[in-house]
Amino acid sequence: MSGRRARPLVVAAAVLAALGALAYAWWPEAPVPAPSRPASAYAAIDKIDVHVHVPMERAAEARRVFARHGVRLALNANGGDTAPGLLPYCHVDFARAEAPDFASYARDALTRCRERGGVGLKIGKALGLGYRTSDGRLLAVDDPRLDVVFEVAGELSLPVLIHTGDPQAFFRPPTRDNERYDELSAHPSWSFWGPEWPSWEDLFAAYEARVARHPGTRFVGAHFGNAPEEPERVGAMLARYDNLYVETGARIPELGRHDAARMRALFVRWRRRILFGTDVQMGREGSWVLGSAGAQPDPPARIPVFYETHWRYFETTDRRFAHPTPIQGDWRIDGLGLPREVLVDLYHDNAARVFGLDDREAAPGVE
Questions:
Q1: What is the C-alpha end-to-end distance of the chain, expressed in Å?
Q2: What is the DSSP letter of 319?
Q3: Rounded CA gap, 160 and 54, in Å?
Q4: Can you give the residue range of the structural domain that contains 86?
Q5: Residue 360 confidence (pLDDT)
Q6: Helix axis angle, 260-269 relative to 231-240, nearest 10°?
Q7: Which pLDDT belongs to residue 362?
Q8: 282 lies in a domain?
Q9: 124 SS3 class
């Protein structure tokens, strides 16, 4: 994103991330609750994580950690090169949207990325909340000038992992009665409250319009279809658009708040349309962010609990247990107890089918 068009808050977020990485060197080893049951108690199903962020210099470390927790293949939203157990998404620079050669640039960028092993196209929330056009307005998710990007993605069989908007609480006043106050206090640039920002509803409408406009392109709605607060709305979109899928990255805390029976029914009904993702992020300085972080990164000691809580949510009928990302809110969640055949779809088969993945691309196990 060019400096002229990048919004100051995006730059601020990058600065905060860099400071967090530096802070990692002195992060204290905080007490971490022990896993409630041995790892062998959970389903032994190889997993594909469709949403991680890994800098290439930490690819080998990522493979070891992911494989240790049953993730044999991960799709890297950071892009980069292919590596054992790690395949990249492609990117397009929307700061060039008004350039006369944007269409040819986008086609060439996606074609070359596909040839280098790219398996999908990642669209971040900066589309709709960051990129600005020459008139100072935010570049909309459904701006017709961007149609070529999504059409070419469909032609090249590059599913689009799209993050639009953010948690609904981020569009409300960042006051103490906001249930995500701790998170917003740690990351002030994540607040989109105020007349200078579009509403959550407007962003979601633009996202739906984009999905509807390209029936030949597969979309994967990040963070449970960008609306984990409203699973019925997500289910309605899945019913309307055969080209839409969703993934679970960084939203187990939100999903687990809903009635477990309703959520289980939704996961069973849409068993071929929901993909497993975590949104695990690795910084360049050895840091980890497990779904979301406070002012400092997460301690590595939390990694086993983070993964176990995902398996516990999907696989057990446990009630009122701690969710995997404490900074996202002070509440408890209930497990779904999904049947094994649904877990196989969720953890592995859906991603393999949607992204055209070969099991041989998975990372070997760890010794």
A1: 42
A2: -
A3: 18
A4: 8-22+42-361
A5: 44
A6: 20
A7: 55
A8: yes
A9: coil
What are the pLDDT tens digits along the chain (367 aa)?
344 344 433 333 443 343 333 333 323 334 445 556 877 789 999 999 999 999 999 999 999 999 999 999 999 999 999 999 999 999 999 999 999 999 999 999 999 999 999 999 999 999 999 999 999 999 999 999 999 999 999 999 999 999 999 999 999 999 999 999 999 999 999 999 999 999 999 999 999 999 999 999 999 999 999 999 999 999 999 999 999 999 999 999 999 999 999 999 999 999 999 999 999 999 988 999 999 988 899 999 999 999 999 999 999 999 999 999 999 999 999 999 999 999 999 999 999 999 999 754 555 444 3
Has residue 2 been placed in a domain? no
User: Helices marked H in 91-227 — which ranges?
Assistant: 102-115, 126-129, 147-155, 181-186, 200-213, 222-225
353 found inside a domain: yes
How many CA atoms lie less than 13 Å away from 266 in the CB half-sphere?
Answer: 25
- Spell out the residues 6+ positions from residue 333 whose beta carbon is closer than 8 angstroms to its own: 252, 253, 255, 256, 257, 313, 320, 321, 322, 323
Question: Across the strands, what pairs with 193?
Answer: none
Q: Indicate the number of domains in the chain.
A: 1
Q: Round to whole Å and give the CA distance between 5 and 137.
A: 10
Cα(295)–Cα(18) distance, integer angstroms: 11
Q: Per the domain annotation, does 180 fall within a domain? A: yes
Place of tokens 């993730």: 71
Q: Which residues contact 172 (CB under 8 A, 6 or more apart)?
A: 178, 193
- Return the DSSP state at 337: -
In 3D, which of 133, 139, 129, 194 has the Cα closest to residue 163? Answer: 129
Plot region of 142 (φ>0 → left; ψ -120 to 50 → alpha; else → beta)? alpha
Query: Could you write out the DSSP letters of every residue in 220-241?
Result: EEHHHHT-TT-HHHHHHHHHH-
Q: Note whether 49 and 363 are within 8 A (CB).
A: no
Task: Find tokens 């993050």 and name the residue.
Answer: 163
Tokens of 13: 């977020």
Find the CATH number of the domain harbouring 138. 3.20.20.140
Gap between the Cα atoms of 304 and 325, Å rounded? 12
